[in-house]
Design goal:
Four copies of one chain form a homotetramer. The first copy, chain A, contains 16 helices and 18 strands. Chain A has 367 residues and is of the alpha/beta class. Chain A has one domain: TIM Barrel (Alpha-Beta Barrel), CATH 3.20.20. Chains A, B, C, D: Keywords: NAD, Oxidoreductase. Chains A, B, C, D: This is GuaB3 family IMP dehydrogenase-related protein. Chains A, B, C, D: Belongs to the IMPDH/GMPR family.
Chain lengths: 367, 367, 367, 367
């Protein structure tokens, strides 16, 4: 703890940019490295989850993500569940325009109500393709569409907001009681964002199969400027990893997965997230660079279209290759935005690790 | 304390940019959050005070600020009290020109003497609109116009300079004795800038109803370059908050309000200022972005027109919406410069707080 | 050690940019300074080694480097050993083009197999010029061409990769056993990159005559972004210097040389590297500025052409003078990219040192 | 002390930019502030010394500096002592050209030998104007022109180099023995640059009337890049101030003056330098902005024209006003580059100090 002033102390927290993975005295061959990630009943070839953002996830790219060995998550309160055919909306959102115009246009387009039947239809499309099915709602919309979700028999349901707590207090409204909700729900629930030991521990006790660690840390989020709230990701993941360990003991063996959700823009960040203690990462911006991305290089998240307090920019990325190349390579760019799995694999091989779980223990340095 | 060199030690201080608000394990609903701020006999809907700068405050915008639930403060030694009709001066100050020309022009325009009768007239205009009335003078001009101010029966009178001390020493001149002045004065006096525990404690003992915490920390101030003096705002507020606590005990219950005055440019800074211990914030640059701002996007403060040692730039901001939108939303920009009250409200809700006073206790992190 | 989060601690590491050499109370005359560096049977006039990168080292420039008193190292898996006459490939690689095109073109051009007979021929060319002969291979290619190398009777053979360990583990493949390899090999072997005390100690125990200290720290390397692995150079050199000392005692007197390999772009960095404990430096980018550089100002390393995970950019530098001027002066630029030896010499004279070995003990400061 | 790596520790040092002056609980009136600085037999109105750089000091501007209450120091190995009429050389050096051309041209122009009779003539011109006379030579040229200097009966003679030690060791050459030189010399000698406690203490023991504290810290110096040597100014001044105190006691009352020489570009830096413990400051770049500056806005120092290892850039500054306005105001720019004395005066008044000596004790903060 550092003294900020006479009446206040503060703890120091660090971002992925602040840290680096330290080499060890061993190396391994890349072909020996096993990136597989098993959560609940599903095993993925690589611990890479695509963020539920309309700019990167359509039913088609969610399917493609599954085929590539990762998990695609559809935003269940985005364009695909508000519009029968969202192609005109995508047209409007991928035109060149200034930020203010883009924000106003997003606020208009996302004012259209969410339709339960479209949720069901989109999820069925993904299921029919034979890949794992996952979708996300914010806490505010979860109760309304819980039945639709339940019927859709997802592999994973995500409750994802800027922050999610197990103790939301409201004297007036009926609000989502996470513990009750998860208990009654058949589908494994992954919840977040959370960014501290205590919040994560509460979410784990509420029954979450996994927690999303993060709080507006992404490239296109401006939460820190708008709300003043921020938890640098390296420290957030390392804090929540301790909650996982304590809950594992307290629960007599329930292992809750940590998915780093924010500031994972390059393969080096994927490696750092695991090294800080994550089991998997959720990525957005690297996928926006894929030629299949529905945003055609433009990238925006749910924070960007908030009706009264938007907290995200629409940003543009050059498209560099197919979704397959972005996830599994080969890469043709030297900046870590392609071959995310390959970058992680090589980082592990060069430091002598062959599985994700033990790589979580590698030494880090502060730069 | 850190060793700077063998003969000197220094303490570390932090700016709002250095800190972030840490999430907690609780969330609340936004409609439960109460932003109201009561100081002396007045209750404001939000703890937002408009800075006495000609670029943002005219009688009209001071009135509008009051209607919006905040406090507008008129600069009583600015264009409105030097000129019967300052519209020509505003014209000249809002033309495109380089910094040197702008500085020279400001030095000329502000050389015109202040008129007591204009002070009275402007304050009456605001009072007639039925909103709280506040005006500011620098310490050097306070004695001369004290009678005019007294007669105008303001709700709050501000003595505002780069720094104000309760122990100004001058062997030759008759200078403002703050303690005597405040004692004799009916109107509650808010004094500043101050930036340290000891200065603040002295101002409190002199009878101030509130203190302005800051020292040239604003976007357009260059005090640090010109004078070398600077107190990063997060530490300054946290230091002065301890003085408030000690004085509360020492005085047997007098609560002196802290108004963070400097470096509050975005809604996230508003939240951080409160989180560091402030009761309210004084803002300038965000209001310069309102369509009603008399500076038409150009923004300058009293430091900028100093006759021999100017310490502020004239800067330009894009206008983004009405004053109402800037203060209370809705926002159409993702950078925290609109919907200041909404940003504070959401920050409090997401971290589980429902009133300003308890939000002062939230944990902070150093980034 | 600093706490990164509840479950993880991290050590702090520093780059050359983070440190500076502290003046002492003595000065010496420049003509008294002896920059000579003796390693194995060879004495060099200055401790400057040219990096085995095709953009700076051809047989001709390797010879010139030796004539100038330093050591030129030819990349034995680069253009000169893949192509009988690489001039057309150099043409293609020194055209203006964007990074993605450049990366793809490098991936194609370097897909051509390495020829053992070209290795022999290039090394003979250098030997015939009467200068010390050195060449480098990556660990993966070392075994295949070991016989060719052995026959070529180099003065120094370098095994150089992103990281090299003495304990590479592979359950399936036959991999390079460094200890056996060095033991059987007549030529002194210099090995790296390594960046930590323990790795370096293992390499020393494996019989290395010198170790390259570094891990993708160069100007054109993007290893930190792609892999997340990084060791800031000042700390890396200072760590490995302790391994040298401990091994010197443990071995009863074997002195293993430290060559700082990365982030040495200016003469000030050369001085800092020695001051951190290095015996010599390996430089790339300053040599790319020489008029003789085969890359004609364009600069790229082996990481840049990796087939599936490129980790280096092709960058351009203005050419400032001859290779002789870059290494030994006179300089006509004020930024430390010319007269590398002269900069080191003056730094030593101004701080009162006359030989490399004692200059390693000079005090450093953290900026 | 911080651990840099296992074999090396380093101390932390801070620049003027790293620190700020902390407000106190008192303020004073500006007219009460006394900026006078007495050294040896001369009292200056303000503690401001003009650096011996051809871009700012000619005989005419040295005279003007004296008239303005400060001290002008002529470079006795610059254009004015190499050329009878240097106007053509000034023409050539103030043309637009790239850095490499500028460096080469400076190297040519300054290859012309220094003439003793021109030294005498230029100093006489200054003396005839009735202002204090000061000139500077580097250690290498001091012995050759010592007689000329002695005859010129300067008020102050400066031995000024990148670094100057009292223990220069040279086995072969006859070198300047500072102690003997100062002992035999009638004129008070000011010596530097020095940047550490021990070097300064040795210079004080050698009999220096004042020491220049600095080591290539100026705006146009690239010493840190070229040599790797650097001492951030705030720490350097604070260290040397302790040497002054210790020497004062050891010598039974000899007070040696500290002149901060480097990184003083704005009035805020002047105030910080005094606050760190300096008695006066030597400034270069602010004076280059005066309309009378012989460099016409272009600015370069002796390091820039070194024959084999140039360590300074030629840089351009906009001209903002007369030399009088730059030194004593009034200012028309808000960035601290005009009215240096006024900035210092106001900084002292706002923090409650009325003389230079006590202002050295003010508290500083690390930003």
């Amino acid at each position: 703890m550092y003294e900020l002033g006479r009446s206040k102390r503060a703890s120091r927290a660090h971002s992925f940019d602040d840290v680096a993975i330290a080499p060890t005295r061993r190396t391994r061959s890349e072909h020996e490295v096993d990136l597989s990630w098993r959560i609940d009943a599903v095993t993925f070839e690589a611990p890479i989850v695509a963020a539920p953002m309309d700019s990167v996830m359509s039913p088609a790219t969610a399917i493609r993500m599954g085929e590539l060995g990762g998990l695609g998550v559809l935003n269940l309160e985005g364009l695909w569940t508000r519009y029968e055919d969202p192609s005109s909306q995508y047209e409007q959102l991928t035109e060149p325009m200034d930020q203010v115009t883009a924000t106003r246009r997003m606020q208009q387009i996302y004012a259209e109500p969410i339709k339960g039947e479209l949720i069901a239809e989109r999820l069925k499309t993904i299921r029919d393709a034979g890949v794992p099915v996952a979708g996300a709602l914010s806490p505010a919309n979860t109760l309304e569409f819980a039945d639709v979700i339940e019927k859709a028999a997802l592999d994973f349901f995500m409750v994802r907001g800027t922050t999610v707590s197990a103790e939301h207090v409201d004297d007036a409204e009926a609000t989502l009681n996470l513990k009750d909700f998860i208990y009654r729900f058949e589908t494994p629930v992954i919840v977040g964002g959370c960014a501290t030991y205590r919040t994560a521990l509460h979410l784990m006790r509420a029954g979450a199969a996994g927690v999303l660690v993060g709080f507006g840390g992404g490239a296109a989020h401006t939460t820190a400027s708008v709300l003043g709230i921020e938890v640098p990701m390296a420290s957030a993941v390392a804090d929540v990893a301790e909650a996982r360990r304590d809950y594992l003991e307290e629960s007599g063996g329930r292992y809750v997965h940590l998915i780093a959700d924010g500031a994972v823009g390059r393969s080096g960040d994927v490696a750092k997230a695991i090294a800080c203690g994550a089991d998997a990462v959720m990525v957005g911006s690297p996928l926006a660079r894929a030629t299949e991305a529905p945003g055609r290089g433009w990238h925006w998240g749910p924070e960007a279209w908030h009706a009264t307090l938007p907290r995200g920019e629409r940003v543009f990325f050059d498209q560099v290759g197919s979704l397959g190349e972005v996830v599994n390579g080969p890469s043709h760019v030297p900046d870590g935005t392609m071959n995310l799995a390959g970058g992680l694999r090589k980082a592990m091989a060069l430091t002598g690790y062959t599985d994700i779980k033990s790589f979580q223990r590698i030494d880090l340095i502060l730069r």
